[in-house]
Amino acid sequence: MSRAEAQEYQLNSPPTDGISNVTFGPNNFLLVSSWDSSTRLYDVANNHLRAKFDHQDAVLDCSFITATTALAGGLDGQLKMFDFNTHSDRVIGYHQDAIKCVEWNSEVNLAVSDSTVRYRTGRQSSDKEQSATVRRLITAAFPNKKGYVLSSCEGRVAVEYLDPNPEAQKKKYAFKCHRIKEEGMETIYPVNTISFHRRYNTFATGGCDGFVNIWDSENKKRLCQLHRLPTSIASLSFNDDGNMLAIASSYTFELGDKEHPADQIYIRQVSDAETRPKSVS
Fold first, then answer.
1. 224 pairs with which residues across the strands?
2. What per-residue confidence (pLDDT) applies to 221?
3. Which structural domain, as residue segments, surrounds residue 248?
4. pTM > 0.85
5. Which of 34-43, 80-89, 112-121 is least confident?
6. Among 17, 143, 161, 196, which is most buried by a count of CB atoms within 10 Å?
7. What percent of the chain has pLDDT over 90?
8. Are residues 131 and 148 in the same domain?
9. Are residues 38 and 107 in the same domain?
């Protein structure tokens, strides 16, 4: 067994169609949405599928509310809330179009979803809603809330800062990544996903090249590149402690409909050497 294989394992009972999102929650539970019309909850420590909730159509995103509740939405336009303890779910909102993104804002106790943004309390007796049209971008905010990272289908990542001060704006930059040069030809791959390490403010990117890269944004360096997986990296998520990374290896149809490896979720043990900026003692 290689060193890379010893550091990671595949989750049992993975989705049977394209994985749209993986996200760690409390207690190292992992929430997974997929095109097989399901939202799944895994107990990662015991490699066990704890719960599976069915939808009418493909599920495009999911998010934890608490350790025992979560949200998900997809092509059926239904925003659903799940209770893991009772293994029950209920619809708390509807979209006319597909739901592309869902998040829970714990500061104001609201669910947020788009293609149209809808804010909901999640309580049937007091649901309130505001709407605004938005475009979804592949973006992730720094845990320290100083800025965000934006990726593109053109093999680029941009690091942006929120402080309007000119000195802060001088720090923003963009760089090329997820490109492979073979026999003098460079192939550029889409960057599908970003996940931040909450302790160190470093971040991982996953691309259609099958690689995961971990970056030190402050020092503008790549800390490491993990071994290549069988197909596109569709989604990534660090756990709260920052010692595990969930990796969804799932073909994203960037080259059209063709035969491809089966969908898998890898759980990788990551070290400080792979995730900590070199300037941190």
1. 214
2. 94
3. 137-281
4. yes
5. 112-121
6. 196
7. 75
8. no
9. yes
CA-to-CA distance for 189 and 155, rounded, in angstroms? 5
Instruction: Give the number of C-alpha atoms closer than 13 A to the C-alpha of residue 263, restricted to the C-beta side.
Output: 22
Question: Could you give the percent of the chain with pLDDT greater than 70?
Answer: 89
Q: What is the CATH number of the domain that holds 211?
A: 2.130.10.10
Residues contacting residue 211 through CB under 8 Å, at least 6 positions apart: 178, 225, 226, 228, 229, 233
138 pLDDT band, cuts 50/70/90, is: low
| Mean pLDDT score of the chain | 88
Is residue 79 a contact partner of residue 118, using CB atoms and an 8 Å limit?
yes
- Residue 96 is predicted with a pLDDT of 87
| pLDDT for 91 beyond 50 | yes
Looking at 116, 135, 154, which one is the last position of a domain? 135
Inside any domain, residue 247: yes
Tokens linked to 49: 């599928």
Residue 127 is predicted with a pLDDT of: 41
SS (H, E, C) the chain: CCHHHHCEEECCCCCCCCEEEEEECHHHEEEEEECCCEEEEEEHHHCEEEEEEECCCCEEEEEECCCCEEEEEECCCEEEEEECCCCEEEEEEECCCCCCEEEEECCCCEEEEECEEEEECCCHHHCCCCEEECCCCCEEECCCCCEEEEECCCCEEEEEECCCCHHHHCCCEEEECCEEEECCEEEECCEEEEEECCCCCCEEEEECCCCEEEEECCCCEEEEECCCCCCCEEEEEECCCCCEEEEEECCCCCCCCCCCCCCEEEEEECCHHHHCCCCCC
Which pLDDT band, with edges at 50, 70 and 90, does 143 fall under? confident
In a shared domain, residues 84 and 175: no
Alpha carbon distance 17, 252 (integer Å): 10
